[in-house]
């Protein structure tokens, strides 16, 4: 019994050490990204992802998606987003869902996209909630449901996702699925504006002038 406990303890120490090393590589990748050295960024992310650092896998997937520091490769991006999602990173699930929505590196599959958005939203990932809300707003891969769209946009906005706030404001501005309410529209446009959405700033101005 003592031997088994000792082996388990050694394995635990090794796992902690490996995670710390992966986190260090990920942090170095973030620093390189801030410095604009995207090739170095990708190398650090790749090293961390190889050690199963979920966020690093998602970030490396984004690099391949956008062609930042690496040659653009949608199929590699999809594989990395999937790994990130499987490792528990909800943003990886959102990005994988978006790939299925757009057909980037995979065949378009809105139903699969929505399942991934839901998985992310259930983990309180705000962009996933927004994207799922948009699917319900337009009836893509799901039955159109403006009330559900509103609730998802609200959850997204509460999580400080500017797109969620903007889309929620649009519903109140136009009275779609809700009673038309300019004050609420302005409220959510203002929040989206504060979160960096310049279009929301313009929309809020148009309503108050």
Could you explain the architecture of this structure?
With 209 residues, this protein is mainly α. The chain folds into two domains: 1-118, Alpha Horseshoe (Serine Threonine Protein Phosphatase 5, Tetratricopeptide repeat), CATH 1.25.40; 124-209, Alpha Horseshoe (Serine Threonine Protein Phosphatase 5, Tetratricopeptide repeat), CATH 1.25.40.10. Helices cover 78% and strands 0% of the residues. The protein contains eleven helices and no strands. Helix 2 packs antiparallel against helix 3 (54-66), helix 3 (54-66) packs antiparallel against helix 4 (74-86) and helix 6 crosses helix 7 (126-138). The termini are far apart. The model is unreliable at 10-15 (pLDDT under 50).
The main pleated sheet reads as: none
CATH class type of the largest domain: Mainly Alpha
Q: Structural class per helix/strand content?
A: mainly alpha
Instruction: Indicate the CATH architecture of the largest domain.
Output: Alpha Horseshoe
**Could you give the count of β-strands?**
0
